[in-house]
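User: tokens in, sequence out, please.
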């Protein structure tokens, strides 16, 4: 299967630059995965497609304000650092721009010296290992100095950091938001619970590898970067109960989907666990747990479009995307949503 099989035309003006004031007022395209039939709604109508006994799986990861802008000590050259993964204590794997100014031994200062970092190694794909020095609590300093690591296609400044977090974000560790969850409000979640729908919280810390473009022609040659996930006993129980009682498991976002599919055994049974996943889901994949998916509209030729196509069929998905373009849906992180059932 070729990368180009997942291409679609998207006018640039349909890329959402700002979140809506009311999270749940975004548009919702509902796609029947069997027939390919499409209907159009408002996101808060998603409750009409959920039934008592179903299990809604959400990813409660929290995004780090991981983008730091500082200056190289001794030269005042501007350097931008994106925290990717904590390796140990105060050592992080990072993406640095411009990389040529970040040789081993280079020191960078942030916030007039409130935080400093030293490049200690160059690793895979040119990423830098940086040891940070500071007084106090790292997370508090990061919250003060860091910016949200918005995708490059969002060019507007984000006024409120919380708008790039889900309302249920809890466990800090992501380099990007699980954006399908941005549409939920506390009120909508409460109504869903009141309808008898179980809500299971899992954690997958989203890495930038999820969004890296597929550059190889044959998609099976693409390698996914590993991401840490965790499933607690309560979530495993709720998901297993829904499946055993003949109800559906509906995941909010591709990250929740990848978490449960990575952790399940061959029969789709889950138990409390944690680990690292490199799962790459594309057409031909047999889902062990997932029945339905709430997701945003993804970049052409991305692994995320491939995952949705594995669930609903490539032709159905690309036809739905074409209709979304024609009806001027808002695309990508701050855009509208899609329900596949």
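Assistant: Sequence out:
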């Amino acid at each position: 299967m070729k990368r180009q099989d997942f291409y679609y035309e998207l006018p640039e003006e349909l890329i959402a630059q700002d979140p809506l004031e009311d999270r749940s007022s975004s548009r919702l395209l509902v796609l029947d995965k069997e027939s390919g039939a499409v209907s159009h709604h408002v996101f808060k109508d998603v409750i009409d497609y959920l039934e008592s006994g179903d299990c809604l799986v959400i990813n409660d990861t929290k995004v780090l304000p991981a983008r730091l802008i500082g200056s190289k000590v001794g030269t005042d050259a501007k350097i931008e650092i994106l925290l990717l993964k904590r390796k140990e204590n105060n050592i992080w794997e990072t993406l640095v721009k411009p990389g040529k100014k970040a040789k081993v031994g280079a020191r960078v200062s942030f916030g007039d010296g409130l935080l400093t970092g030293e490049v200690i190694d160059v690793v895979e794909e040119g990423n830098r290992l940086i040891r940070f020095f500071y007084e106090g609590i790292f997370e508090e300093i990061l919250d003060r100095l860091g910016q949200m690591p918005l995708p490059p296609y969002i060019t507007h400044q984000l006024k409120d950091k919380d708008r790039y977090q889900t309302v249920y974000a809890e466990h800090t560790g992501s380099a990007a938001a699980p954006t399908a969850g941005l549409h939920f409000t506390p009120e909508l979640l409460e109504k869903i619970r009141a309808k008898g729908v179980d809500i299971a919280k899992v954690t997958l810390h989203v890495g930038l590898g999820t969004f890296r473009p597929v550059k190889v022609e044959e998609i099976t040659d693409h390698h996914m970067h590993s991401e840490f996930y965790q499933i607690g006993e309560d979530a495993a129980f709720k998901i297993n109960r829904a499946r055993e009682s003949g109800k559906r498991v509906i995941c909010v976002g591709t990250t929740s989907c990848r978490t449960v599919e990575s952790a399940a055994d061959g029969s789709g049974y889950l138990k409390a666990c944690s680990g690292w996943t490199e799962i790459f889901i594309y057409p031909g994949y047999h889902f062990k747990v997932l029945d339905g998916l709430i997701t945003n509209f993804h970049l052409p030729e991305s692994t995320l479009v491939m995952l949705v196509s594995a669930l609903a069929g490539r032709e159905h998905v690309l036809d739905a995307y074409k209709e979304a373009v024609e009806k001027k849906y808002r695309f990508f992180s701050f855009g509208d949503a899609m329900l596949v059932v």
